[in-house]
Amino acid sequence: MIDWLLATAKTTLQADDTHIWYIDVAKHLSEIAKLYQLLTPEEQTRANKFKFDKDRQQCIIARAYLRIILSHYVAIPATKFRFTAAQQGKLYLENFPDLQFNVTHSNNIILYAVTYQESIGIDVEDETRVVEYYDLAKRFFAAHEAKALQTLTEDVLRQAFYKIWTKKEAFIKAVGEGLSFPLQDFEVNYLAAIKETVKIYKNENIAAANWIIENFQPIVNYQAAICRKNSLNKIFFYQY
């Protein structure tokens, strides 16, 4: 499990670094009014559309802390910069195209990944959630991935499933094409204890790059994965 470092006022991001940030939503509920003020009117309107308080609160905390975290890397206050979205919805920071980032959440946990220049994706899942592992694997996983799960006993099946799932989601988010890139068209290995290169069966343009991916456990009962284009050499873990 990860040993998270407390955030500092000055966080230095070198060219080959990847920074992963962790937010526990429950610890920041008392800040909602203050965090709400960091959002643009459009972001506030979006948050207010949620029917349930917990969803609205998570939306506010997630976007406000995205602003706070990115302000570590640019010389602009958190309230001042603007986001733009690519065709498939992936966010970029206006006027800072080299600063790459991605966000994921599950229940009360939010994770952010930040790096320079290279595309990046991150995913987290609650691995206590029981689903139809074999059925989902047959529908969405590559053939070798689904076959590998069929050989596992119940006590390791759940963790293996979520290791594959988070890796596939992190890759899709790094590529930035959404589900227009089918999950069956690439393969990852749940047994890989360290970084691995994604095996891509189709799409020559994407396959021309190396997509490096790795699982990690942010907190108990959660599985996560980080994917970065070309390298994933130095990862640092911070929390607010």
Tally the structural domains: 1
Find the CATH topology. Answer: Ribosomal Protein L22, Chain A
CATH architecture type: Alpha-Beta Complex
Number of strands: 13
Question: What is the ordering of alpha helices and beta strands?
Answer: EEHHHEEEEEHHHEEEHEEE
**Helix-residue proportion:** 25-40%
What overall form do the CA principal axes indicate? globular
Count of helices?
Answer: 7
CATH superfamily: 4'-phosphopantetheinyl transferase domain
Give the percentage of residues in beta strands.
Answer: 25-35%
Order of the strands making up the biggest sheet: 1-13-2-6-5
The termini sit apart by: 17 Å
CATH class: Alpha Beta
Low-confidence stretches: none
The gyration radius over C-alpha positions equals 18 Å
Major sheet attributes: 5 strands, mixed
User: What class would the helix/strand composition place it in?
Assistant: alpha+beta
Mean pLDDT score: 91
Polypeptide structure, described:
This protein has 240 residues and is α+β, with helices and mostly antiparallel strands. It has a single domain (5-239), classed as Ribosomal Protein L22, Chain A (Alpha-Beta Complex). The protein is 30% helix and 27% strand. It is built from 7 helices and 13 strands. It has helices at 32-36, 41-48, 53-70, 133-140, 143-150, 154-175, 204-207; strands spanning 5-6, 17-24, 83-85, 91-93, 99-106, 109-116, 120-126, 186-187, 196-197, 199-200, 211-216, 222-229, 234-239. The strands form 4 sheets. A 5-stranded mixed beta sheet has the order 1-13-2-6-5, with helices on one face. Helix 2 (41-48) runs antiparallel to helix 3 and helix 4 runs antiparallel to helix 5 (143-150). The protein is globular, with a radius of gyration of 18 Å. The mean pLDDT is 91.
